[in-house]
Amino acid sequence: MKKGIVIKPFRSNLERIIIVFFMMGVLNVCAQNSSEELFEQGNAAYNDGDFTKAISLYVQTLDMGSHSAALYFNMGNAYYRLNNVAESIYYFEKAKQLDPDNKDIKTNSAFAQNMTIDAIEAIPKSQLAQLQEGIFELFSITTWSKITLVWIWLFALFFIAYLFLNASQLKRIFFLLSLVSLALFISSFAITFSVNQQQKNTQYAILFSNKIDIWSEPNQRGEIQFTLHEGTKIELLESLDEWNKIRIANGSEGWIKNADLRSLN
Description:
This protein starts with 12 loop residues before the first helix and ends with a strand. Helices cover 58% and strands 14% of the residues. The strands form two sheets. It has a five-stranded antiparallel β-sheet with strand order 6-5-4-1-7. A two-stranded antiparallel ribbon has the order 2-3. It is globular. It is built from eight helices and seven strands, in the order H-H-H-H-H-H-H-H-E-E-E-E-E-E-E. By secondary structure, it is an alpha+beta fold. It has helices at 13-47, 51-63, 69-81, 85-98, 103-113, 127-136, 141-164, 168-201; strands at residues 203-207, 211-215, 224-229, 233-240, 243-247, 253-257, 261-263. It has three domains: 13-113, Serine Threonine Protein Phosphatase 5, Tetratricopeptide repeat (Alpha Horseshoe); 127-201; 203-263, SH3 Domains (SH3 type barrels), CATH 2.30.30.40.
């Protein structure tokens, strides 16, 4: 009589953990391949002039958790081709957040801005503010965080080398290198912290309402200050029930009621 096959249990929890991580890795690779395929299909549809189909495929790519400057840029281009002002500006702004120095994104974003009804001139900034903004926008906050980690690791390595080396000349060199890397770490950490705080405390949005009045108070007993149209980038200052206090690029402020907004944060 043949013996039945005995299925042995896992020998340890380690095997379970390895199998779980292996399956997670396989699923992640499959998801990445699927999102890349959808993105390429969207690009093919865009090149064929089927912008509606391209947008549908790009949205599916987003739904799979794939976010990149290239994806947002292509979505902005597709909406621009369909003369959808607000959507186009929104996705160009999202692309700029991930790749602030990309000239193509800046150029196409400017074209989209020209489609808006509201011509708003930004307040001139001081040289100090321009310098600060230039430094902050050199890299994304993710890149600044990575730079900060690099400098702290270099400081640790240089300082350890200083402690364990015997040659006095080498000790001086590595001590100076550790001081320089420490100073650069402090500088990059300060920039990363400032950028993070600025992003937390400053909330921007794109207006999707076709036309909306801006009031002097959070009620309709006040005066209408000005009127805005879709595609305008606004800064959200505070909210009160269905009212939002906003500021636009020229410094003008006011209250809007039940506005159709999409946050950029």
